[in-house]
Design brief:
Chain A is built from 9 helices and 4 strands; from the N terminus they run E-H-E-H-E-E-H-H-H-H-H-H-H. By secondary structure, the first copy, chain A, is an alpha+beta fold. Chain A has 2 domains: 78 residues, Glutaredoxin; 112 residues, Glutathione S-transferase Yfyf (Class Pi), Chain A, domain 2 (Up-down Bundle). In chain A, strands 2-1-3-4 form a 4-stranded mixed β-sheet, with helices on one face. In chain A, helix 1 links the parallel strand 1 and strand 2. The two termini of chain A are 24 Å apart.
């Protein structure tokens, strides 16, 4: 299979982690987001939203939206499990993942930051926007873990929650967030980044890293 | 159970539809978003993100993030099904739902629009932002349905896709989007709004409607 993505795209990074955890090899095609590669007509045929990632299966089937792909991976390649078995425990993991995937990531992605800039604001204003979104969003995520056991977000194995958290922390670091209050998030990051699957997915280890 | 929400909140509207489709009665507590009710300390104890909705079960269990709650509803109350059985078909429905829930809804919610306003922009600028996000996002959603059969988003029954679409179309209408190119979206809206479950969930029929 082939991952159409970008080394710095958080949603591509989620899929790199999950595919590595599931032991599924993949090739990559890179789209430089700030050049608008993802809005070229040939790619829009694959992904009408003009976003990365898209996962292309060996039979040519195209899949979009990282969380939909993660759920499909879990349903079709159940081991190792990325969701617990109990429905309420699954809901807690998904709520954490969605708190990042809906309420942090899309509000600080390149499209939104470009839209803020197009309103006449400086790079410093844009960075302030991105830092605020990450800080407030991840402050809330830390609270969502207040009653959970570590070292991962939800216990002793990585889940969809960690898969969404780790790429977002990379962005938060890039935008200058204050990590000092994030006890559980920092613990989960350390546990994840000790695993080969997470290491192989690191942005700086991708072929298109700049 | 009790839905903590707001008549005009799109994510609350999703849950009202799904609970009605599943035949599950619920009470409501209303949070007037522009007054900041959702950021009061007592509510932040229930929902650390300070967002609606929160679903409170009869035993006091609190659930957040509408899509996580929808997946839990589907797992614990499987009939009528809101997702198809085939994994790839499920992925298509979820990708459509997430295209709205991640890439449209959060980029035009009240918090983001207030953030744009706080940068010194007018109500007209803010409305332009919201209209653009809805127009571009739903234009892409129309394309995601180009190979599907109606009258609903994915066939002859409503799914999670319709549950996310209908509240977003209500916002799109409010912000003045052009619906004329949305053949499949309009068809799905008409099919949904003919159903009693969707009718009972309409914003204007809620006790807190203004």
């Amino acid at each position: 299979m082939r991952l159409h993505g970008f080394f710095r795209s958080g949603a591509s990074y989620r899929l790199r982690i999950a595919l590595a955890l599931k032991g599924m090899p993949f090739d990559q095609t890179s789209y430089v987001l700030r050049h608008g590669d993802q809005r070229q007509p040939a790619y829009l045929e694959k992904n009408p939203q003009g976003l990365v990632p898209t996962l292309e299966l060996d039979d040519g089937t195209l899949m979009t939206q990282s969380l939909a792909i993660l759920e499909w991976l879990e349903e079709t390649h159940p081991e190792p499990a990325l969701l617990p078995k109990d429905p309420m425990a699954r809901a807690r993991v998904r709520a954490f993942a969605l708190a990042i995937a809906c309420d942090v990531h899309p509000v600080q992605n390149l499209g939104v930051l470009n839209a803020v800039k197009a309103l006449g604001h400086t790079d410093a204003d844009v960075n302030d926007w991105a830092r605020r979104v990450n800080q407030q969003g991840l402050d809330a995520c830390e609270k969502l873990l207040s009653n959970t056991k570590g070292p991962f977000c939800f216990g002793d194995k990585p889940t969809l929650a960690d898969i969404c958290l780790i790429p977002q922390l990379a962005n938060a670091r890039r935008f200058g967030c204050d990590f000092s209050g994030w006890t559980r998030l920092n613990e989960a990051e350390a546990a994840c980044n000790a695993l080969p699957a997470f290491q192989s997915a690191l942005p700086e280890r991708q072929p298109d890293a700049e």
